[in-house]
Amino acid sequence: MTRNDDIYDVMVIGAGFAGMAAALFASAQGLKVVQTGATGGIDFSTGFIDLMGVHPIAEGKRWQNPWLAIEAVIRDCPKHPYGLLSKDEIFESVDTFTRFLAEQGLEYVGHFARNTCSVTPAGTIKRTYRVPKTAWNGSLALGKKAPTLIVDFHGLKGFSGTQLVETQKHHWPELKTVRIQFPGGHGELYPEHMAWALADPTVQEKMIAAIMPHAVDVEYLGFPAVLGLNDPQKVVDHLAELSGKHVFEIPTMPPSIAGPRLRAVFDRGLPSLGVCTHSQKMVTDVQVLDSGMFEFSVGTGAAKLSVTAKKAILATGRFFGKGLQAERKKLVEPVFDLPVVQPEAREQWHGQEFFAPQGHPVNSAGIEVDERLRPMDASGRPAYDNLYAAGAILAHHDWMRMKCGAGLAIATAYKAVKELMR
Amino acid sequence: MIFFDIGLTLALSICVIGIVYRVARWSGKWTSRTPHLSSGFFLWIVRAVKAVILDVLFLARSGRTSFLRWLAHSLVFFGFMGLLLFHAMDETVTATFFPFYESTLDPWQFLRNLFGAMTLVGLALMVYRRVRSTKLRLLTHFQDWAALLIIGCILLSGFLLEASKIMSPAVFDRMTDEYFVPGEVGDLTALKAYWAHEYGVVFSVEYPRDEETLELGASLDEDSCVDCHASTATAFVSRPLATALGPVAFALNTSRADQVFWYFHVIFCFIALAALPFGKFFHPVSTPINLVARQGRRDDLEEFQPSDVLRGVGMDACTRCGECSLHCSVAPAFTVLGNQNILPSEKLVSLKQFQTGEQMSQASLTAFSEGSRICTECLRCTDLCPSGINLQDLWIASKAQITKRAPSPNDLLRKKTAAQRARVFDDLCKSSSILPAVAGLADDSASYWACVQCTTCTSVCPVVAVCEDPSRDLDLLPQQIMNLLRMGLKEETLGARMVWSCTTCYKCQEHCPQNIRVADVLYELRNTVAARVRDGGASCEGNGESL
């Protein structure tokens, strides 16, 4: 095992939205930060930054103003993590986050007090707080119901222009679609490979040449999100120049290329801020030293290393992020073995109807924290003075149905860093 | 001398017939004939003379490999050639050039001991070299030890013969009967006393050693013996050997050990003579021819393209020194696979069998073919060969031929569809004597239980990325292989080109959100098939229709 003799101010455990945001905020405060975590949920993100979209979920009520939605959710579910944060904190956190993304070349746009409507690959409308600039024209087109052509490709799974048009045709009559042969490949296509191919201007030109005969009378061109991996805006701009149309992307089914784009920004940006990142490594063990500091074992096998930190932020997510583990009879938190708020018995994890709109009790499982975001032990006191939690691992929310995942992750990470600085 | 004449005639006949037979097979059964042009003959002669001096006489090419080897071989070469020309063929060679030649006179007696000692030291160094290196010991076979043993026996029996003659009173009596006429009574006793003292003869009785007797003996010796006998002190090996044998001298003398050792010495010489055309015993003839003919070039000049006969000479020129195998760049493959045909010195043995049309079992052909395939033609063996054999040309010229007789299972399999391959692999597993050699990740459903079929492995795969049509070009994609495996359909995955095109860059495994060991599994699938194919590769020809 490699021993790292450096003592870090804070260890961020997790590399999803919350982990990345926590590392960003902590390093902005001048702290010496170390981060670990395997490919988290961020790779499976749509690239949209949701703040608050649906409440109450049983009724499926969608909110145009996320701030009012947050007020409502705090009123109805006082234990929701948003209840621990002020509106200013939430706004400031997302703003700082998107500013960093913009600095790194991934620009996000949106309104202040209004959610933006975006088309999903299924043709449904999703309300979200911030969208990547490459998707912005899609929201404008949707708002104006402008003449738009959705382009899809033979062999690309999980994105169907026909389904999209079929779902929207009554609301958006001038929406149409065409399926073309992708100039960079045949057979089964995968978004990442298409994105690589489309970074080549000659492929872009060939693609536009194949599209133009179908795009005579449209103002907008919508594509699945495969328009380049590292610099999508450049590809979008070039396609717009070639076609003379407004061009936008629609995220594909997960894993969409939008997720890896976000992760790439952090993979590039965090080390340059001085964050020591141990990507693709998970914490396997933790010891509390006499000084109260944590000593973590990170990774397995030959690449195993030891990391010492004064404080830690637990941002390991729920099940997909491995922050929670479902054992035969109960849910556990594997790093610190913290108590997990959960239904009493396994049979109560899920309701009878899998697609029930109100979701399932297990979807609100997580760890309990005090008002300073410190995880609590079984007796209701902070388990450690120097451990904070952020993101999806917190209990009392169902981010998937409430559409509050990214915002909740970013805002609680912001709050955790703020509390940790006190 | 009937024994000697018959023996010599027999050994010579075997030798001559053997050489004729061997030389006759030099042309081999090559299929790729290339014209042998002979322009630039003068230049060739100059190079050939240079080769004779540097490479044949001074073993310059051996010197390039290691000093120890050069020293050992030079000692044996010069020692044995000296003995052969001036001792074995003394009547024809030495006596012709030196009319007053007597084998018991100096410098002949001294030189014989010197040459013999040189040869023995050289042989000892050769044995040491083969024993010291584990690699070389593995490559040393019967004929290598036999060659060292026979030459060693000739030398040892020769020294024992000389030593036993030195101490023998019977030999002394035979000489005095013939050449000594005693003047007075006591002369013979004095001569015996002097010879016992000075020449090391061991008589059954003790003769007086007083000064007077020895002085008389010395003068008698001066009169009758010194013309043909130098002091045995110059026989610096045999004389001490005789002294050392002192305690058993009486027994040796009474049993006429000198005659026994003579028979041994002559028989070993006959064996060596008769063995000359066989195996590496032939290299004193073939290697110089090859060195002169090719002059040790790493490749052949345009005007001297290798003719089939020259290839035959080359194959026969191998001294089995093993240097090529010690420096072979694919020797690690031999360590893993255990097929000696991977090593050049051993592959050459198979190639010779193959080219001279000897019967070879299918197993030998398969092993030879594998060795031929694994060779990367890196030229190292050719560059290094102390015998200057154009190994590179031999390997390249034979590759197609052997592939025809024993095709590569990989080539056979490549031509099939993924489904046909899967059936063949399945058959191999059933027909093979062993259980699947590799049972691990791929067979354990726990390896994939966390897989959510998210396609991340496929998305990041650079092999998939370079395919124009991944499902057409690779049969199955990584996430599909994982899916089949977790359903227990391992056999269906084995033939997929994805498995065989994987570069093990580990991107899939690194990116998998569920920590599934995708690349490890793909690698294991390949090892599974490799183990089956090696076990029953010959049956790869069919399409697995037995299913």
Task: Write a structural description.
The complex is a heterodimer of chains A (422) and B (547). Chain A folds into 2 domains: 2-105 and 259-421, FAD/NAD(P)-binding domain (3-Layer(bba) Sandwich), CATH 3.50.50.60; 121-250, Rossmann fold. Chain A has 11 helices and 19 strands. Chain A has helices at 17-28, 66-76, 87-103, 133-144, 161-168, 191-198, 201-211, 232-243, 258-272, 399-402, 405-421, and strands spanning 2-13, 33-37, 108-109, 116-119, 125-128, 131-132, 148-153, 175-180, 220-224, 246-250, 276-279, 283-288, 294-298, 305-314, 325-326, 331-332, 340-341, 366-367, 387-389. In chain A, strands 1, 2, 11, 12, 13, 14 and 19 form a 7-stranded mixed sheet that branches. In chain A, strands 8-7-9-10 form a 4-stranded parallel sheet, sandwiched between helices. In chain A, strands 3-6 form a two-stranded antiparallel ribbon. The radius of gyration of chain A is 22 Å and the shape is globular. Chain B starts with a helix and ends in an 11-residue tail after the last helix. Chain B is mostly helical and 547 residues long. Helices cover 64% and strands 0% of the residues of chain B. Among the domains of chain B are: 169-258, no CATH class; 299-406, Alpha-helical ferredoxin (Fumarate Reductase Iron-sulfur Protein, Chain B, domain 2), CATH 1.10.1060.10; 412-540, Fumarate Reductase Iron-sulfur Protein, Chain B, domain 2. The chains are: A alpha/beta (422), B mainly alpha (547).
